TrEMBL record:
Protein name: Aquaporin Z
The UniProt record lists the keyword Transport: yes
Transmembrane segments: 31-53, 83-102, 131-151, 163-182, 208-228
Pfam families: MIP (PF00230)
GO cellular component: membrane
Originating organism: Flavobacterium amnicola
Molecular function via GO: channel activity
Keywords: Cell inner membrane, Cell membrane, Membrane, Repeat, Transmembrane, Transmembrane helix, Transport
SUPFAM superfamilies found in the cross-reference section: Aquaporin-like
Amino acid sequence: MKKLLAESFGTFWLVFGGCGSALFAAGYPELGIGFAGVALAFGLTVLTMAYAVGHISGGHFNPAVTVGLWAGGRFQGKDIPSYIVAQCVGALAAAGCLYTILLGKTGFTMDNTKASVFATNGYGAFSPDGYNMASVFIAEFLLTMFFLIIILGATDRLANGKFAGIAIGLGLTLIHLISIPISNTSVNPARSLSQAIFAGGIPMQQVWVFWVAPIFGAIIGGWMYTYILQKKN
């Protein structure tokens, strides 16, 4: 149970910190943090929670990471469903808190006919810069694949484990720097689902891409590291 609570808390912090920075601070007049600030915020959420609760649950905070670690032989398949449920619960709780805070803003409305509404992910007209479904799928697949390679490499028994959280957090920051204009960056199905549920409409209809592409990418990344890249001795 403590492992599941740690996953929920960690995923809550990822969504609240990452999506919250996009909603509250990214476009603030004159002082907004912009894409770079949002990218750094997502990286910092993972970095901080990796050290805070990673020793309890492994610090996945992402269904794709959980599946990828299983593909790489680092996680038991029987625990995948409970981890994913815990991650989604944490993400939804964070989205609910973000929405509640936004309700207190004068003039707040949820316009789910626009790209990136409530920090959602999307393709086509719902991509921040108009990228089609194929482009978004490829980006999410490749970026999640490399994210798993970073995670597995940084936590390898031959690596310096004390710095794993830093490498993983900075890896996620780089991923966001690359892909915010493409898809508003997912690489995390729980993060995508939580925002899409509150936004509804087209973002909810498109959320399947942000489950399928990251999970496939994570599986390939897990296999590649374990069976091609990993040093055995």
